[in-house]
Amino acid sequence: MNMQGRPVCTGLYGCSSPQRSPVPSPPASPRTQESCGIAPLTPSQSPKPEARGPQQAPFSVVVAIDFGTTSSGYAFSFASDPEAIHMMRKWEGGDPGVAHQKTPTCLLLTPEGAFHSFGYTARDYYHDLDPEEARDWLYFEKFKMKIHSTTDLTLKTQLEAVNGKKMPALEVFAHALRFFKEHALQELREQCPSLLEKDTVRWVLTVPAIWKQPAKQFMREAAYLAGLVSREDAEQLLIALEPEAASVYCRKLRLHQLVDLSSRAPGRGCLGERRSIDSSFRQAREQLRRSRHSRTFLVESGVGELWADMQAGDRYVVADCGGGTVDLTVHQLEQPHGTLKELYKASGGPCGAVGVDLAFEQLLGRIFGEDFITTFKRQRPAAWVDLTIAFEARKRTAGPHRTGALNISLPFSFIDFYRKQGGHNVETALRKSSVNFVKWSSHGMLRMSCEAMNELFQPTVSGIIQHIEALLERPEVQGVKLLFLVGGFAESAMLQHAVQAALGARGLRVVVPHDVALTILKGAVLFGQAPGVVRVRRSPLTYGLLVRDGRRWCTDVFERFVAAEQSVALGEEVRRSYCPARPGQRRVLINLYCCAAEDARFITDPGVRKCGALSLELEPAEGGPDAAGMPPGRREIRAAMQFGDTEIKVTAVDVSTNRSVRAAIDFLSN
């Protein structure tokens, strides 16, 4: 089939083996489908799925934006030297002791809703505002999680600033992405004055792999609004799944660029203090290649078991521990080209570093009262931000073997506001509270014992470990010996120690890249240069559409395109043919359904739900609707869907004219 036109990206991730469903298609019917406005073309069957190689658009540079819950950044590389990754300039401002190759995901808008600043600049400016003036400004932080947690996400979803005011989430995200676009292009112009923006930049946006389809489409819509790319050039924007990007990067690392947590010295807390794997591994690996010896050679050569475990099957887990989520993927490294195959669908949940922040807020509520904390956040939003910054600085120094207490500075406005609201001082509140291990320092600080800080970490860290252990129980993951721990939260010594203690006993080797917080960003750049590196993915859900039995109109058959947990190769297509219900019909709308079960047969089965709509925009046939000689209602529209990419893509063609038909899948209209 001659499929013309560019694929339409729809902002979601669906992937599975597009095998034919065991549910038969209904026979031909003279009646139309009332819910869809189409009639399936029968008795001819859809052809078997076929794989098509991805078409690469020309570009000179790849710019990847890692849009995180707590921090964000960008990096780029030129097509002429794709593995030379250039990190963005270090940001102005920032916290002492923190690498500034990322900036806080903080957006500041004026009281009128206009863009003011992003990152450290936004945070510091908001900090310096007069408390009364700050109440009118719109300050957004850690807002990415809203997209994941909203069950009815639409283009009209609202986000709430710290002062309680709301504005459309799409505009908030577009402001942030537009900032990164302008910042990155300015740096590119300075490094390469001859670079033309149009048609030369491929943009990559990272999203969690566990995000639902509407959330991924939402990010693409925000990118369109921000002007990263136009809808007509949709292929210039790629959506990268965060643990996949990390995997793409980790597979290229050498041993001296990794830290093996099982070999750390007891009592050491900081990443840089742990003993790295000997760089002489590279020489031993070359000897292994020449000698073709076994795993025993590697172990006895003094190199260690890490590479031996990789050679035992080239399979590994990537645990992306970020600010908002833990995102897990399992890959097999395929030879000889080094492509990746997903062995189990993406899993994880909302267990990120912000969980520790929430636990701290709950601790304050236990001491000073939940109503007071709510009132303080609303009436002194800038001071609340100051308090969270102070806690973040201490959170980064927490370690499992730390013995000294941690001091957290309370803003003066907090102390003053509590005295006015509560009628007594914060020291009295601490004495009266039932909270142990937290005292008042004469220097005006909360003094937290190590036990208190450990208690704040415990729920989030335990949740991450539970997700990893549940994944390791899956049959598809049996025998995996290696886990890459990546993401911003993976810098935490508390998390590293807990994961190694829990999983090391299972024989799993836990490895952390040296630049652990930048792993996803660098991997996204590499993914943008070669998106075909992930050759096979797994479908998170079963997708299909409604087919009614035209003879009886008594059953709602669920015709399956792809099944949950099935494998599907990149570029593999599922094709279906449809016929407009009426002569001269200009638009065909087909409802799509999904479910977690693999064997659903009807849309009335438990768990089956409407999740989106496939729309086909039809041009009138030359000479009228029946110019092609087809009987009324028999104009064939052939659609092809790809489920093996990070987003579901669809193209369509009018068979009678061989012309491209505008096709799209919308998951934000429900």
TrEMBL record:
<protein>
    <recommendedName>
        <fullName>Heat shock 70 kDa protein 12B</fullName>
    </recommendedName>
</protein>
<dbReference type="InterPro" id="IPR043129">
    <property type="entry name" value="ATPase_NBD"/>
</dbReference>
<feature type="region of interest" description="Disordered">
    <location>
        <begin position="1"/>
        <end position="55"/>
    </location>
</feature>
